[in-house]
Amino acid sequence: MSIWKDIALQNPKDVPMCFACGRDNTIGLKLDFHQEGESVKAEFIPGEQYQGWPGVVHGGLICTMLDEVIGYAAGYQGLYAVTVKMEVQYRKPAMIGQRLLLSAMVKSVNGRTVKCDGEIRLEDDTLIAEAYSELRIIRTD
Amino acid sequence: MKEWNGPPLRDVDLDNYTMCFACGRDNPIGLKLKLQRDGEAVRTEFTPEEQHQGWPGVVHGGIITAILDEAMSYVPLFQGLNCVTAKMEIRLHNAAHVGQQLFVSSRITRKTRKLIEARAEMVLEDSTPVAEGKSIMYIVEEA
């Protein structure tokens, strides 16, 4: 995919319009990540505009959060990558207004492939969803 | 999800429920997808805008996933089965750019008493594959 050559030349830390993490995206999740040991973490309290079934967070957005926290787990290791494959298992519905705790970590790096795990839990540790992803590295720092 | 402890889906008046992020016509930030039945399949189209990007100019993988998830869940919905996604696998083949029209179709590939397996694919106008999804959904109830 030749497009990734163009993307790789841009500053990967400057993505103000990203739907998941961009600070200037008016409809976005504005996720704010930090590193904690080997994990990358963020929190999010979904408003009602992020629902699927009434009162329940849309599964596609659960997936978006997992994809993003996983992408950042690779990014914090200087590996800027794009998702090529993702498996998500939904365990419990997340309700609008509940604080969601996102975390992810890199499991392995092999050539241009990064494998990562991510999960979303409630404050009482209830598992909402977990994901396994494979990403292709487009740039390293 | 093997059990559903969310609100009862049967009580949802789907004709007048308009706040879904993916398909609700009154969700101010939603994708406002219009999903249509086409024989056994479900189809929809979407033209992503700047706020749907991840990497600059490229549609966020999570948005692509949300569209595929919605397309797959509408197949049983059109058959009167209220489902929630239990497991989903997504493969992203090619980048989709902001402004490029995306064409999505989905269908059921397997059905048991409790579960539905569906697949969806997303392509560009020239048939370039963008992504495909496979989903296992748990049937919560018949509408």
What does this structure look like?
- The complex is a heterodimer of chains A (141) and B (143).
- Chain A is an alpha+beta fold and 141 residues long.
- Chain A has a single domain, classed as Hotdog Thioesterase (Thiol Ester Dehydrase, Chain A).
- Helices cover 16% and strands 39% of the residues of chain A.
- Chain A has a six-stranded antiparallel β-sheet.
- The mean pLDDT of chain A is 92.
- Chain B is mainly beta and 143 residues long.
- Chain B has one helix spanning 61-78, and strands at residues 36-38, 41-46, 81-92, 102-111, 115-123, 129-142.
- The chains are: A alpha+beta (141), B mainly beta (143).
- Strand 3 (79-90) of chain A pairs antiparallel with strand 3 of chain B.
| Number of helices in the DSSP assignment of chain B | 1
> What distance separates the N and C termini of chain B?
19 Å
What does the radius of gyration of chain B come to?
Answer: 15 Å
The gross shape of chain A turns out to be: globular
Count of the separate structural domains of chain A: 1
Overall CATH architecture of chain B: Roll
Roughly what is the average pLDDT of chain A, rounded to an integer? Answer: 92
Strand content of chain A: 35-45%
Q: Which residues of chain A sit in consecutive blocks of at least 5 with pLDDT less than 50?
A: none
Strand neighbour order, sheet with most strands of chain B: 1-2-4-5-6-3
Largest sheet composition of chain B: 6 strands, antiparallel
Work out the helicity level of chain A: 10-25%
- Name given to the CATH architecture of chain A: Roll
Overall 3D shape of chain B: globular
